[in-house]
Amino acid sequence: MAPAAAEKLIAHLRSLRSPKDIEGQRRFGITPKTEHLGTRMGRLRQLARRHRRDHALALALWSSGIHEARILAALIGDPTRVTRQQMNAWCRDFDSWDVCDQVCGELFVYTPFAQERTLRWTKSPEEFVKRAGFVMMARMAVRRKDLPDRVFADWLPILTREANDERNFVRKAINWALRQIGKRSPGLRRVAITEAKKILTLDTRSARWIATDALRELANSTTEKPGKRAGRKMPIQGKA
Prior knowledge:
The chain is mainly alpha-helical. About 60% of the residues lie in helices and about 0% in strands. A hairpin with a 2-residue loop joins strand 1 (about 230) and strand 2. Helix 1 crosses helix 4 and helix 8 (about 115-120) runs antiparallel to helix 9.
């Protein structure tokens, strides 16, 4: 039985259900298999502010199976209380790129297990599990200032290893990771460009797209902040 706070939040989320927003999100590839309410991210972030680091509530919201409740769980969970078992279980539940990206970017990247899970997940045959590994790379490149650049340089060959994966949400995450690593520092920009050129030589449709798009951005990224493309805000992903 979910705590009373979870039941109250779930009831509130259901009261906000918007068929119009559900349809709009579907056009951006958000088609979860679980209950889908269409609640916008701005509203979810507002709700999350009242419950920061309430990990028990986050677990109860996730167990509801509701798409928006799971995003809310990512926003309020406590990374110091996340276990490997929780990371693996939630990752297996991913059924939409936005849930994957929010959980990885808002919660998992701050856990003590972030680096080891990243390496393991990039080898997964499951589309959203594999995406999670590369989303973790992209998000850590921006948010984990405590990590040395060599961590990200060592990850670049993994992008090349997986660059032939034609699945949409995987190749977009690989591209995202390549761009964000390259924009972390001038030194990483140079090695990311070199790696992108290696990816280009693979000469598959996926590899060509990943490398060409990244090279186009990295060639003009000397003054950009990580997380942004020139002239526009970086989307959550999925349509990047």
